[in-house]
Amino acid sequence: MLEIAYTGGAPMGGVLPEPPRGHKAPTFLVFANNGALGSSLDRMQIVKSYRVFDVVWSGNHNDRNSDMSDPNKAMEILMAMQEGPVISRDDAREAILIHDEDLPHVNLPDGSTLQLLQVDLNQNMWIVRSKFKPGLSLIDTHYHTGPVFAVTQSGEWYYKEYPDKINKAGSYLYEPAHSVHTITVAEDATEDAVVWFAIFGSNINIDDEGNVISVLDAKTVLKVYRALCELEGKSADKVIVMGE
User: φ and ψ at 10, to 5 degrees?
Assistant: First the structure.
């Protein structure tokens, strides 16, 4: 079920793709577990702006007079949220500057390196700087459930699926959601390709037949980066983390 959802849909915080011709309204797949402390769930809802849509209620419970089903109460909650961010930014009134030497470039199995700059766990967004060596072709072809923005700082690289579109130093690249690609650096490249990526949504790795083989999101990237930093005896403390 999750493979189908990730293959053809957009997760919470992602960007909905263009609907197929003849279709207008999206279809939602909603799944939840009990709370982390074992508390039972009372209901599942979808919230769009100030409107609250009940999906399912526990057992035969059907309290349509609950506060959350009351549009007026929902509006009050929305207004209260707008008085201050959902995640407090009281201590983040100044710009945060990160120099290249402030965060390590950790080694990945495919020969590339990863520097994680920022993650937003609520939006499932992460910003990284990657270094790709000459002759590299990433093992996994993949796509993203949201858009990706990339700036090449040095070197050259391209997608195997679009060999005529060469990213060079100073190039800017926009990837729409669900664009399938495989990062590649030419064998005769004279230097590493250094690329800054802002990634929204999950990274879906697929095999040659288009089957989903793994899913990578902001939370997983943060966890892996911290683990690799620890393994190399380095600190990841300066990563900007929102939603944790």
Answer: -130, 130
The 3-state DSSP class for residue 12 equals coil
Q: What residue numbers bound the domain in which 23 lies?
A: 2-82
Question: Computed over its alpha carbons, how large is the radius of gyration of the chain?
Answer: 21
d(CA 174, CA 105): 24
The model carries a pTM of: 0.63
Residue type, 231: L
Q: What is the pLDDT of residues 44-86, one digit of tens each?
A: 777 654 455 667 766 655 444 444 445 555 455 445 444 444 4
Helix (H) / strand (E) containing 127: strand 125-132
My answer on whether 163 and 204 are in the same domain is yes
Counted domains in the chain:
2
Domain match, 105 and 188 both: yes
